[in-house]
Amino acid sequence: MQRLVGLSYLAYAAGFSGLLAAWTLFLSHALIQVAVEAGRLQVSWRGVADALARNAEVAVALPAGATLLGLCFALVPQSDLPSLERSHRGYQQRLAPFAGLSILLVLLAEGRMGSYDADLGGLASLGVSIGLLIFAWRRYRRGVPVSTPPGWQLALAAALLMAIAGALVLWLLRDGMTRLF
């Protein structure tokens, strides 16, 4: 079942690469909008920015699906695994909170690009996730077991907190924030 471990790493890599591309798409959209409003670009560039914005949902949905697929590969029940595969499957399962946090921060950056919290938070989380993935993949290719990624409980708590806060905001905005009064 060594194949599932490799497929899981590949799915995570595709997801993180897609998230990096989505983050770049959101940054490009924001930069074009700012340049048009400042008069540095012609108004016709708004069409390019609008085309980028139309693809925003797909730009995040595909990487999210790839990372979910990576988690599913890591969760497939298997008996009698060698210790190398067992350690890497555990690592991949604990990599999921980092992926979830990266997805949520990149989604937050979509609407708030230009505010440094969303921009840098999404990029930092994505950088940590990619670094953890590269570290584990290199150890896997050398046949070395891994322990859990450092700080995965913190990433899980942050991802859950962001998901709950996002759901609360969507619930409040659903009726035009009439629930606040």
State the helicity in percent bands.
Answer: over 70%
Number of strands: 0
Q: For the terminal residues, how far apart are their CA atoms?
A: 56 Å
Give the amount of beta strand, in percent.
under 5%
Cα-atom Rg, whole angstroms?
19 Å
Count of spatially separate domains? 1
Question: What do these coordinates show?
Answer:
- This protein has 181 residues and is mostly helical.
- The chain has one domain.
- It is 81% helix and 0% strand.
- The protein is built from 6 helices and no strands.
- It has helices at 2-38, 45-54, 56-75, 83-112, 116-142, 152-174.
- It starts with a helix and ends in a 7-residue tail after the last helix.
- The model has no long low-confidence stretch (mean pLDDT 86).
Task: Output the keywords.
6 helices
Task: List the topology elements.
Layout: H1 2-38, H2 45-54, H3 56-75, H4 83-112, H5 116-142, H6 152-174
Short summary:
The protein has six helices and no strands.
